[in-house]
Amino acid sequence: MSTQPELFTWEFATDPYPAYAWLREHAPVHRTRLPSGVEAWLVTRYADARQALADQRLSKNPAHHDEPAHAKGKTGIPGERKAELMTHLLNIDPPDHTRLRRLVSKAFTPRVVAEFAPRVQELTDRLIDGFAEKGEADLIHEFAFPLPIYAICDMLGVPREDQDDFRDWAGMMIRHGGGPRGGVARSVKKMRSYLAELIHRKREEPGDDLISGLIRASDHGEHLTENEAAAMAFILLFAGFETTVNLIGNGVYALLRNPEQRERLQDSLAAGETRGVTPGPAAGSPLLATAVEELLRYDGPVELATWRFATEPLTIGGQRIAAGDPVLVVLAAANRDPERFDEPDTLDLSRRDNQHLGYGHGIHYCLGAPLARLEGQTALATLLRRLPDLRLAGDPADLRWRGGLIMRGLRTLPVEFAPRQI
User: Fold this and answer.
1) How many angstroms separate the CA atoms of 216 and 202, rounded?
2) For residue 334, which of 54, 81, 49 has the smallest C-alpha distance?
3) How confident is the model over 104-141, as pLDDT tens digits?
4) Could you give the CA distance from residue 74 to residue 35 in angstroms, rounded to a whole number?
5) Looking at the chain, which terminus has fewer C-beta neighbours within 10 angstroms, N or C?
6) C-alpha to C-alpha distance for 111 and 128, rounded to whole angstroms
7) pLDDT band for position 25 (50/70/90)?
8) Element at 200 (helix H, strand E)
9) How far apart are alpha carbons 305 and 54 in whole angstroms?
10) pTM for this entry
């Protein structure tokens, strides 16, 4: 590719990696006009990306943007400003970020997440039961999408009878323009109303869940406004489900396109079972944990890190960036940088030294990473064990990737397999 590639077209969405390779080589910190009309810097090399993610001069607060674009809803989550859901972890800096993150981080420790493992396994099996007898499924809509929704709803304390409403609102949010005009903002507004009501209910009758925990912390002198509590619940849901939908969808797709790697993982899972290991997320397979990390690196769920804004003039990768300029770190490009990874375009499930940036880096490192890893490991292991002959139905060229700037995920993933009796 000798001339500068076109960015953000449908062809680019299908396979952005050749374009990112060009940018890394020729324009590693590149100013471009986004489809929304906003101009931003794209950072594509691993070393620059890692530096930018941890640079305190790059603020998450949209107030630092030098254009009124954010006020028009062009640089955040659609509808979040109108619904008064702005004060969440993706939009704030220390000290507020430090305070809010400390409040919620207790819910995502490896110990707490490990206790949640049986519930994730139960949800995974129930969803596979729903299509195993048919011999075919759309793995996005019937599996990858509902699994993290129900899991995060359980964690937040959303009653089971309300979880299908959440599923509908979340479905609208990830269509990224595929639904009715204004549908995302309407769904965000409905979710906001519901969360306000749920917070009131949990004040009266607290439970052993994340929203009750936030209220308890607030009542014990940690100041948490109701808007902050609702925004926190909202961003945990928003950030906690779409990333996992894409991790599972992109991961299964990568395994189906790389049959020798998928076979290695299946053999490793089978060996774990024959050794009598109790089925759990890793199911006795030493390969499963490194496999999920490699899938996160190879074609991860988050293509670009969320918005950052320069609070003062600074230099990244030799490029001067003015105060107020938006900066987007391209995780997908950094994770395939040959300066950092050997044979970066090759899927190698046993890859060691895999310090990918799939969950970010620095103080905004993804809080829910332990839960996403658990869900990814459980989903992939259970699918491959229960449906070992899983195969793609149809031509890969017919698959469509969802539009939208930050996330990378398939709209559908049709698969076939021999029907199983439940």
Assistant:
1) 10
2) 49
3) 787 778 888 888 999 999 999 999 999 999 999 999 99
4) 10
5) C
6) 27
7) very high
8) helix 183-204
9) 12
10) 0.90
Token pair 């009501």: residue: 197
Instruction: Find, among 346, 125, 76, the residue nearest to 235 by Cα.
Output: 76
Candidates 331, 288, 328, 332; CA nearest to 310 is 328
CA 196, CA 191: separation in Å to the nearest integer? 9
Whether 132 and 145 have beta carbons less than 8 Å apart is answered as no
Give the other-Cβ count within 10 Å of 334's Cβ.
30
Residue 329: strand pairing partners: 43
* 3-state secondary structure string across 280-334: CCCCCCHHHHHHHHHHHHHHCCECECCCEEECCCEEECCEEECCCCEEEEEHHHH
> 170-223 pLDDT, tens per residue?
887 766 444 455 667 788 888 888 888 998 899 889 898 888 887 777 655 566
Q: Are 298 and 277 in contact (CB under 8 A)?
A: no
Dihedral sign computed on CA atoms, order 61, 101, 357, 293:
negative
Q: Residue 10 CA to chain centroid, in angstroms?
A: 21
Beta bridge pairs of residue 321 = 314
Question: 229 pLDDT exceeds 80?
Answer: no
| Structure-block tokens of residue 91 | 């939009």
Instruction: Identify the CA nearest to 402 among candidates 411, 394, 392.
Output: 411
Q: SS3 of 42, please?
A: strand
Q: Which amino acid is located at 226 in the chain? A: E
Cis peptide before 68 (omega within 30 of 0): no
Q: Which residue has the tokens 């991860």?
A: 300
